[in-house]
Fold this sequence. Notes:
The chain is of the alpha+beta class. 30% of the residues lie in helices and 26% in strands. Strand 4 (108-116), helix 4 (125-135) and strand 5 (141-147) form a beta-alpha-beta unit.
Amino acid sequence: MLPTPEGDMPARPAGLSIGPLDLAARVDEALRVQAVAFGLSEEEVGIRRYIVQRHMTSRGARALGAFTDDGALAGFVYGMPNDRAYWWSSIVEPYLRAEGHDGWLDDSFVITELHVHPGFQGRGVGRTLITRITDTAAEPRSILSAIDADSPARRLYRALGYTDLARQVHFPSASLPYAVMGAPLPLRRP
């Protein structure tokens, strides 16, 4: 069982296995991980529950989880082939077009969410999740958005081959600007 955000992590966390995740069935557990990793309020979790459930009905949507020995979720990733009709695409398209990169919205696998519980960060869990899910993509490239700041997540994405396609992207519900990043597949390995 994962500790609460206030709890101490063991010095040596239980081993993790990576595998398919029935995200629709385990959405509340995944959102607890995301809330701790990303600092979400209960209201934001409620809104995201609906979004995740809707996304998982999209063509080609799939998810992977990182599981502790006792089956608890320590991290997850999900994504799907991008479609210009998706809300996310409609928000980022003008920013990408202004930079000459709106073609990235076609033939791309979008990483919708990637979150690892803080107690398991810095151990290659995020890298394994994102490379495994994109390794199964039929699309030749991947896109994602991340808060537009120097962060461990952005450093990971750059190490995997993602580059900035547009910066200072403003989503209506977010207070911080985002960057849209893209990478050819397969992702770069260390």
